[in-house]
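If your schedule permits, I should be very grateful for your opinion on a structural question. Thank you for your consideration; the sequence and its tokens are set out here:

===
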Amino acid sequence: MKNPDVPGGRDDLLARIYTPLSNISMEISERRNNKALMKKVEDFFGPWKFDAITGEPRAVLSRSIATPNLELSYFLSLSNGLGMTPLILEYPDKFVAKNPDKYHLCKLFFVRKVEGGNPIVIDTLKLVNFNADEGKALLDIKTTNGENIVDFHHYLLGKQFPYLSDKVINFSDWFNNTRVLSRYYYLYFLSLFICHGVLFENYLIGDKEESSFFKEKFLPSFEEAERIFGVKPIIYSLLPFRYATRIRWYSYPESLKKYIAGSNHNNKLPTSINHFPELKIKDTGKYGMGVYANENIKKGTVIRVLDGEIISFNECIKRIKAGEEEQTDSLQVGLESDMDLDGLSRTFNHSCDPSAGLRKTSELIALRNIKIGEEITYDYSATVGPNIPQSLWEMECMCGSKKCRRTLGNILSVPKKQLEKYMRCGALQDYIKAELKIIQQLNGKLPKYRKISL
């Protein structure tokens, strides 16, 4: 979609603003090894150096209040994948109910994640008196049970992610002081991401209010930072654009609901709802970026649950035709449905002799013991349904394993012994298992599938 107010259109502009996930580590490393650039950044900040982000490179999320919603969980998985320490910068300014970020801090939505589909809202909890608290500083707002709203969210955060206790910083004073040093509102803030880390953020320039903020405040500051340093601030699109306005990212796991009802802090929260092994994204040296184990992983361990937007085949084909997606950007999760994968999920590569496989809908499990430093791969063909003809999905393989098949097709192209191994390990998606059972009942014949074509 082109935005007439933005030269070149929305997509072209966002492509210029954002840095691809696969380039971030290398870009930061190169800049930090550039002594002249590092000195220029140091001189620029002078007495306004922000110590929390000038040491090791940081993955940064900036929000009004740090809270353990699904957005934060996703941010942590990305920072973990990059091998970067997360940092959450808080700016608890005034409460404005029409601001979605702040609204959902004061009215909590609990979701149940349905396997094979998007989360479903199961309950809500209103924490404050919206009319009475409109315009108040968040630091001065109390919940209906008399607890400070910031303390309330910090309590939840500390129980779910205790390791973040020293990684949340109120940077209000620093930001308020530096934003008046230049006519460019965000110049000093964005300059933090020239050498010292990456900012994870969503810029919804298709939204009327967001578009005004973007053009009047953000973009001039971004361009000025780029002019001063000769390189742009490193920013990654935290959530794909079509996800960002969805209620799911502001929501909380169903498992938290029973612990916060009535603000009863005598109840214990689980320390981590989703504990996954540490991973690292780096260049494979052969076929782009890949995902590697950053710790030893035992056979059968759930490595990740690949995530994304569940879409129909028609929508998937539409996006491919429009050039919005590559054919390998999605994962088939049903006979006529796909998951448009998020950035991290897309980075797992194929191998004909993989270290991992998929079960249920998108649960990635270790097929064997995986040593630290090994790449984590799965067999793409094992996820492509028998209803997908070779004319629609075919891929040249460059995995380099002894079992390399050279050309990949659908599930039926997987060698019999390899397929039996996946079955023994429970590493086949539910819909694949169901279709293979039907084909077996038909003595090897295919059911009559609906014709699908590009």
